[in-house]
Amino acid sequence: MAELAPIETALKALLQDARALDTEQVALTDAAGRVLAEDVKAQLDVPPFDNSAMDGYALRAAEAGQQLLISQRIAAGSAVKPLMPGTCARIFTGSEIPPGADCVVMQERVERQGEHALLPADIPMGDNIRRRGRDVRAGQTLLRAGTRLEAAALGHLAGQGVTEVQVVRRPRVALLSTGDEIIDPGTPLKAGQLYNSNRPMLKRLLETFGAEVVSLVSVPDDPQGTREQLQKAAEQADLVVSTGGVSVGEEDHVKTALEELGKLTLWRLAIRPGKPLALGQLPSRKGQAHFVGLPGNPVSGYVGAWLFLRPLVGALLACPVLQSLPEITAKAGFATSTGPRQHYMRVRLLFSSSGVSAEAFDDQNSGVLSSCIDADALAVIPPQTQVEKGDTVTCLWLAGGYKQHCPLLCQRRECYRV
Q1: Residues 326-351, mean pLDDT to the nearest whole number
Q2: In this prediction, what percent of the chain has a pLDDT beyond 90?
Q3: Contact 298/329 with Cβ under 8 angstroms?
Q4: What is 51-130's CATH superfamily?
Q5: Average pLDDT of the chain to the nearest whole number
Q6: Element (H or E) spanning 283, and its range?
Q7: Predicted confidence (pLDDT) per residue in 298-325, tens digit
Q8: Which of 136-140, 285-289, 290-294 has the lowest mean pLDDT?
Q9: Would you say 318 and 377 are in contact if contact means Cβ atoms under 8 Å apart?
Q10: pLDDT(14) > 60
């Protein structure tokens, strides 16, 4: 029997032929979750002018501590006039600072006396002023190619007046479910049948990772039907994903069909869950479609999606943040031991003043999908390892396809202690 391959070998084989897809222009209003195909340069300073950080009064710092005439009222979006010496201006948050003023004092510190204002004495120059270009300078790189456009990035682009962006085309995915015993929800179960939990689970994960699922197909348990469906899927998609049919049973036809039609790069991994996993390529009129054959077990499919589908989709999108999961170290709240396969345990991360701990779900059996629902990380336990409570373990943060905003994760994906 062939030796089980380590995950590093599988990832190398998976990504070695993965190239970024072609690009397309989309409206900014439709660009949420898309990946930039090119750098975007800033056309405007942000803010575009010096403006007030709060409601208050604009004045010269040298005239603080005096009673000054209120010479103008400046609302956001209104024109301003130069500030005459011996006067101040009533000003509101976001309003342009009038020429001549060099500080703003909040309204709570000012005593209003008719058309005059009594200003406190301790107002430093530049106080409560947001300077032009503090955030962005025209000409600088606003966002880099490979950036996934989530809320803040979309706002950044809109602040430049951008209406369209060049993005990488979403990978088209054909999702195949094998097994005559697997049926869709809504159909009465017969003896020996199971509802298809993989299909909605993997469709959602693939979409979260940035792919477009273009085909959902049930594959019969026969060699010819399997070959036909694989061929058809390869013509429709950049990536063909199947569940089941990659083990060694008499009704497992996917691996054989893949070898007959295309190329089997790797089969059977030294990981738990998910040992029966097939990687390869399928020919099509457009070239080659990537193929990933996940185990039929839903937990194995769930873990395999994070470990393999996410980085592959990230490579096709040329999006670095998708190509590896953020790592965080934690204290094990469990004890376990491994054999020859590397174990990916579903854990919940708990944060406290003493650090981060990983609490494992009691039943780590590959048939227990409920262990994935509240899991926010996979604790990586290397082969032939004994872990005791309190030992340090490395966890892969299930970041949902985009950068996780957590105070404990820095840009280098290391763990800060609370």
Answers
A1: 96
A2: 79
A3: no
A4: Molybdopterin biosynthesis moea protein, domain 3. (2.170.190.11)
A5: 91
A6: strand 278-284
A7: 999 999 999 999 999 999 999 999 999 9
A8: 285-289
A9: no
A10: yes
Tokens of 370: 């409920």
Q: What is the pLDDT of residues 144-184, one digit of tens each?
A: 999 999 999 999 999 999 999 999 999 999 999 988 888 89
In 10 A of CB 402, how many CB atoms? Answer: 17
The span from the CA of 396 to the CA of 373, in Å, is: 16
Give residue 250's identity as a one-letter amino acid code.
E
Strands 392-397 and 327-332: what pairing? antiparallel
Burial category of 352 from C-beta neighbours within 10 Å (exposed 0-12, middle 13-18, buried 19 and up):
exposed
Distance CA 99, CA 96 (A): 9
From-to residues of CATH 3.90.105.10 in the chain: 25-41+140-168
Q: Which CATH class is domain 327-397?
A: mainly beta
Residue 9: half-sphere exposure toward Cβ, Cα within 13 Å: 13
For CATH 2.170.190.11, the residue range(s) in the chain are 51-130
* C-alpha to C-alpha distances, 214 to 17, 239, 250, nearest whole angstrom: 22, 10, 30
Q: Range(s) for CATH 2.40.340.10 in the chain?
A: 327-397
Considering the domain delimited by 7-21+170-322, tell me its CATH architecture: 3-Layer(aba) Sandwich (3.40)
> What residue type is assigned to position 370 of the chain?
S
Q: Report d(CA 224, CA 230) in Å as an integer.
A: 10
Q: List pLDDT tens digits, range 266-284.
A: 778 899 998 888 899 999 8
Q: Which residues contact 233 (CB under 8 A, 6 or more apart)?
A: 174, 176, 215, 217, 240, 282, 289
- The CA-atom distances, in angstroms, between 244 and each of 25, 173, 180, 202 are 37, 17, 11, 13
Q: What residue type is 212 in one-letter code?
A: E
Where in the chain do CATH 3.40.980.10 domains reside? Answer: 7-21+170-322
Q: How many CB atoms lie within 10 A of CB 98?
A: 22
Measuring CA to CA, which residue among 235, 173, 234, 183 is closest to residue 206? 173
Architecture of domain 25-41+140-168: Alpha-Beta Complex (3.90)
Residue 392: its H or E element: strand 392-397
Give per-residue pLDDT as tens, 369-393.
999 998 999 999 999 999 999 999 9
Positive/negative CA dihedral, 299, 301, 302, 308: positive
